[in-house]
Amino acid sequence: MRRARHLLVGLAITFYYALTGYTSVWYFRRDLTTSAREFVLTGLLPLLGAVALTFVFVPEGEHAVVVSHDVPAGADVDVDSVENVLDVLEEELERRGGA
Question: Dihedral (C-alpha) 87, 73, 4, 86: value to the nearest 10 degrees?
Answer without folding.
Answer: 0
